[in-house]
Write a structure and sequence with these properties.
Blueprint: H1 51-76, H2 123-141, H3 148-165, H4 167-187, H5 190-201, E1 232-234, E2 240-245, E3 248-253, E4 270-275, E5 278-281, E6 299-302, E7 305-310, E8 313-318, E9 324-327, E10 332-335, H6 340-343
Antiparallel strand pairs: 1-2, 2-3, 3-4, 4-5, 6-7, 7-8, 8-9, 9-10
Helix pairs in contact: 2-3, 2-4, 3-4, 3-5, 4-5
């Protein structure tokens, strides 16, 4: 169809010829074709990371640190409330009055253990008591009547053990105490046995034999069937005046031919005294005169002490210990307490 252009040598758009060599119609002025050129982006204009992203990252780091601290201190460190370990089976706690969620009956509360009744005294304790009882009785038979506390100590220990063991042992201790006091009375004297009983009775109220005196036997009982109970009296001659009280007997003599002892001065009125501790000269105090005369053969008493008027002088004694004195113009002597084991050799 006419002269052709080589392939690839096409004419610009709008300058093409129509069919038959005719020029292609023109539809107005043609706009030049826009061409795009790559312009490199400057570094200072690269896209920046938003601030919110940094805040989120910081919060995540904080939460992670808190989580690690909680796991270490609570789970691994055994805190008061370890919480739930991931992957562990949760434990359901059921109170005694609350039914479990699975419908099983509530667990019965564990009953408190019932205290066992007090056991009867053991054989060992009873044997120990009997051994002590025998030891106390043996000690009474060997006393030298010089230490009241030592003689009463065994009774106190025996009473204390009996108190712990009960009624049978208390009764046994009471009978032992009576036997001990009777032995002391025979080996020493009644006054010594009473002093031992008085030393032990305060701490041993269960032992009634310590407070009773039905076992007491006078070492030197007063003579006569019906003595007088006159507290102030004098000898028939009036040279001796005497006073009696519940705790002593005292006589003062004005004219005498002997040398007085103690704190008395020769030539001055001399006074003799007998009490629980024994008989002695004691001139710091004198007997008070003014009482009636006690005829020869007459006796006056007060409690455990008595005086008998005789032709050879005034005789005054402690009926329980046997201690006393005799005073007259020609003599003034004292008597030590009577000790049974010495009298028996």
């Amino acid at each position: 169809y006419g002269t052709q252009q080589p392939y690839g040598a096409q004419q610009p758009y709008g300058a093409q010829q129509g069919y038959g060599g005719r020029a292609a119609p023109s539809y107005g002025p043609q706009q030049p074709q826009q061409q795009y050129t790559h312009v490199p982006v400057r570094p200072d204009r690269e896209r920046r990371t938003p601030i919110a992203a940094w805040v989120a990252v910081g919060a995540g780091v904080v939460l992670l640190a808190v989580g690690i601290w909680w796991f270490v201190t609570q789970v691994l460190g055994g805190g008061d409330d370890p919480g739930t370990v991931p992957g562990a089976t949760p434990t359901v706690t059921v109170s005694p009055t609350q039914s479990p969620t699975d419908g099983t009956p509530p667990a019965e509360p564990t009953p408190e253990p019932t205290p066992e009744p007090t056991e009867a005294p053991t054989v060992a304790a009873e044997e120990e008591f009997e051994a002590l009882r025998a030891s106390v009785l043996e000690g009474a038979n060997a006393t030298q009547c010089v230490d009241v506390a030592a003689d009463s100590d065994g009774l106190v220990r025996l009473a204390g053990m009996a108190r712990e063991l009960g009624a049978p042992q208390i009764e046994s201790a009471n009978s032992a105490a009576r036997e001990v006091l009777t032995t002391l009375q025979g080996r020493c004297n009644a006054s010594w046995a009473i002093r031992v009983a008085e030393s032990a009775e305060t701490s041993s109220p269960e032992i009634t034999a310590l407070t009773e005196r039905d076992w007491v036997v006078a070492t030197r009982p007063h003579p006569g069937e019906a003595p007088h109970q006159v507290l102030d009296f004098e000898s028939p001659s009036g040279n001796i005046v005497c006073n009696l009280s519940g705790g002593s007997a005292r006589c003062t003599i004005y004219q005498y031919d002997f040398t007085p002892g103690g704190d008395c001065s020769p030539g001055s009125a001399a006074t003799l005294l007998v009490d629980e501790t024994g008989a002695r000269f004691e001139c710091s105090t004198q007997a008070v005169g003014g009482g009636p005369g006690l005829s020869y053969g007459g006796t006056s008493y007060d409690g455990r002490y008595y005086c008998t008027s005789q032709e050879d002088g005034m005789h005054c004694f402690d009926s329980l210990s046997g201690a006393g004195f005799q005073v007259a113009r020609a003599t003034g002597v004292t008597f030590e307490p009577t000790l049974g084991f010495e009298d028996n050799g």
